[in-house]
Amino acid sequence: MSVFSGLSRPLKAAGVALIGVAVVAAVIGGVTVLNTGGDQNAGPSTSGEPTAPGSSSSAPSSSSSAPSSAPSSPASSAPPSSSAASSAPASSQPGQPGGQPGQQPGQPGQAGPDQQASNKWVTLRVYNNSLVKHLAEQAAADFRGSGWNVAEVGNYAQGTIPATTAYFRPGTDEEAAAKQLAKEFGFQAQPRFDGIQNSSPGVIVIITKDYQPGGHQGS
Q1: Which of 82, 84, 105, 202 would bridge with 95, disulfide CB 3.0–4.6 Å?
Q2: Digit-coded pLDDT (tens) for 94-112
Q3: What is the pLDDT confidence band of residue 22, given thresholds at 50, 70 and 90?
């Protein structure tokens, strides 16, 4: 039997209307409950826009989560290279005896072995100006024994020379060679005088009686 049996037609109509309203209200209430539950799970959006599914507004950013006290790289803790360079002892330059600054090979008064050897290629012409026979030959033998290039041996009779001397033409290789030879054998070196100005090229060594054969002084 129907629940509306025994009721008048107007009452039946009213009952049907109430039931329809109740059904509509129930549907609306169910939809509202579903929407409310979805919003609670998603959490409030601070920007006023709906939060995208699967994302979380409370997730920490990569920059904020990095520790502020990260250890420095090995390069930042290494000492500067300049300190190592400044602590290294300065090496002496080649040709500087004892590492003293400012001395270079071949400087006047500081001639190195290479410079001394290079001067010995210069031609020497040895002349006797004494009454001692063969004194020039003996001197030439001494010079050759020390590595000098003796090209001529003879006599000088155009005047009297006061002391054994090596004569050179200024500004030529003869100058350095004559000074080295004079220092090595213990006599003097001077520029050429007028009487031998036009003589053959080379250091002219005029030997006098003061020369002592074998009198090598050392370099």
Answers
A1: 105
A2: 333 333 434 343 344 445 5
A3: confident
pLDDT(210) > 60? yes
Which neighbouring-strand residues pair with 203? 124
Please give the C-alpha separations between residue 203 and each of 10, 81, 120, 122, 198, in angstroms, as whole numbers.
157, 55, 11, 7, 12
Residue at token pair 């009454």? 131
Number of domains in the chain: 2
Q: What is the sign, positive or negative, of the torsion defined by CA atoms of 136, 138, 139, 140?
A: positive
Domain that residue 163 falls in: 119-207
In a domain, 216, yes or no: no
- The secondary element (H helix, E strand) that includes residue 127 is strand 123-128
- Which amino acid, one-letter code, is at 66? A
User: Domain for residue 4, yes or no?
Assistant: yes
